[in-house]
Amino acid sequence: MKLGNLNIKEPTTRNARITFDEIEKAALRLFYENGYHGTTINDITQAAGVAAGTFYLYFPSKKVLYQHLLFTLSKDIRREIATRVGAATTRYQKEREGIKAFIEYAERRPEIYNIIWESLYIDRKLFKEYYESFSARYVNGLKEARRQGEIRDLDLEVLSFVLMGITNFVALKVIMDLGEGDNDIERIVDVVMDLLSTGLFTKKAS
Amino acid sequence: MKLGNLNIKEPTTRNARITFDEIEKAALRLFYENGYHGTTINDITQAAGVAAGTFYLYFPSKKVLYQHLLFTLSKDIRREIATRVGAATTRYQKEREGIKAFIEYAERRPEIYNIIWESLYIDRKLFKEYYESFSARYVNGLKEARRQGEIRDLDLEVLSFVLMGITNFVALKVIMDLGEGDNDIERIVDVVMDLLSTGLFTKKAS
DNA sequence: CTACTATGTGAATAACCATTCAGTTTATGA
DNA sequence: TCATAAACTGAATGGTTATTCACATAGTAG
After folding, report:
1. According to the model, what pLDDT value does residue A68 have?
2. Were B39 and a residue from A151, B30, B56, B116 both cysteine, which residue would form a disulfide, CB within 3.0 to 4.6 Å?
3. Element housing A9 (H / E)
4. What is the pTM of this model?
5. H/E/C letters for each residue in A43-55?
6. Which among B33, B26, B36 has a CA at the least distance from the CA of B121?
7. Number of folded domains in chain B?
8. Contact B205/A150, CB-based, under 8 Å?
9. DSSP state of A13
10. Which helix or strand (DSSP H or E) is residue A4 part of?
11. Least CB-CB distance to A161: which of B131, B173, B201?
């Protein structure tokens, strides 16, 4: 009936389910294309093929719809990454798969990537929660790797932000096609893993 | 008289200069506190202590003010980093100083950091331009280091996004006080440099 | 078939807000 | 001092938009 504590009324009948899904789908696309503030309830309902009032049968406000999308999608992206990382055995492979999974997901569904970052300008608390919980999960994985002696003894919380930063910016490069080089995912992940393996500097430099 | 091609009318008298500066200052603070869309022209002029109409003596629109701030501030942050990086001799030191300069700048003036990221939701073209030009400069510096044999042979464009990602996310951690560990800049930069020096994995792992 | 509930409608409401403009004040320099 | 331009004012305008509501329809259980 209710989703989380957001006061969203989930539909009970088959047709209403379709309407609900259409509203979600349209909102996701439009928030991506025109941003949260650039999207009106009328835009959303029109794209979903329903009247404006229908929106309020399911969502109490525009902001709650946004939060709902943010929660749903962050769960989705985390699940996807967790599955792929879980299938790998070494930490090296886990790191590689994690980065690849994130970039591929962001490329397939750039809306999600966008919505998460935009939270900084809609509700700072949501943004903070999202990255702190992502970091905490990352740290757990890294702790296990350190127990196994697979990674060096570095501060894991800082490390998690470093790795999230790498992944996010490299994904950004891919989905917005930034820079002049080709944005082939396999090639880019190779560069990242090379850096993580051997570091940036030559022997000569140190 | 005019700033860039933005059609901003710069003031000619001393008092008008003060007014102009107050508007800029108020806007910067309010865009940071409440975001671009959460800030009205009335908020800005009120905070600056002038009437609403005064705003339009100098800026043709709210969006142009935003672009003006973005341009001015990105020049400022780049200049600051360039100065500190230029003073270092080895690439290791340049990298260290660059990361530190960025984080310290972001901590001192978090508004700037915020404004740059928000461009993604105000004008995607501006965002793209900002990061592509930042990347291009970074690549130039890295090219020189590679000529000198100071860094390994990695794709420099990808590398620039990796390094920007690290710096941005670590700065984010500091200015939003994310995570549970202390956010001492010196300590964090040490972790980053350690990773860049020796890589993430132990010998055992490879 | 009937009553009931869920679903849907879209025009109306009430706020909000960027921008304009007709008029006023202030500074300047001759 | 006076004329002129620059700076400033703030109420009015016009457009936008989240949300509401009185009404309509469709599905369903009895």
Report:
1. 96
2. B30
3. strand A8-9
4. 0.94
5. HHHHHHCCCHHHH
6. B36
7. 2
8. yes
9. S
10. none
11. B173
